[in-house]
Amino acid sequence: LFFWTSCEQTYLPKPKGLNRIDLPEALYQALPDTFPYQFDFSQHANLLKDSHTRAGRYWIKLDYPAFEADIEITYKDLRQPDNDINLLLTDAYELSARHNVKAYSQEESIIGLPNGQAASVIELDGEVPSQFQFFTTDTTRHFLRGALYFNTATKNDSLAPIIEFIKTDIIHLLNSLEWKY
Question: Which ranges in the chain belong to alpha helices (H)?
Answer without folding.
Answer: 2-6, 85-97, 156-175
